[in-house]
Amino acid sequence: MKFFGINLAQMLLRYYAMMLVVIVAGFIGQWWLALLAFPIFIGTMMGLSFKKDDKAPQKGKIIRLEDSTTLKKAM
Asked: What is the pTM of this model?
């Protein structure tokens, strides 16, 4: 979960989803269902992204090259 990780298109889609929840709750007369729009609203305002992080730690051996005299002697 990452904060402020969504773009404008995703923000608009979440806004429309929130409004859909409120409108459906109003039409069926169950206003308590409109409370389900609150988590959508908070998630949109905070820009929550539920995508997997691409910066996952890589497994394997990492060799760091340094500019030192031992490397110059080896060449």
From this structure: 0.62
